[in-house]
Specification:
3 helices, 43% helix
Length: 95
Amino acid sequence: RTVFLDALRGANEVTVRGSEGGMYVMLDVSAVEPDDEKFAWALLDKEMVGVMPGSSFGEAAAGHIRVSLCQPEPILKEAALRLRRFASNYRREAA
């Protein structure tokens, strides 16, 4: 969790939500794309990073993505870097 969050630090449009532990992290991506399912599919298409749309877990999680932390640290770090890159480029491409 620490490796993933440290690598994600500085991605201003993405906010960490949820517990301080566990096997996953919920990220609020609504500032980048309000449609969490659209965000999740685009992230998979552009960066080959698979996440769950938060809306899959109910209305309260809409606008979020759920990232599993059940991978080795190098993979988590790479996933965070790809997520940062994707989020920072998303708005520019949409404009």
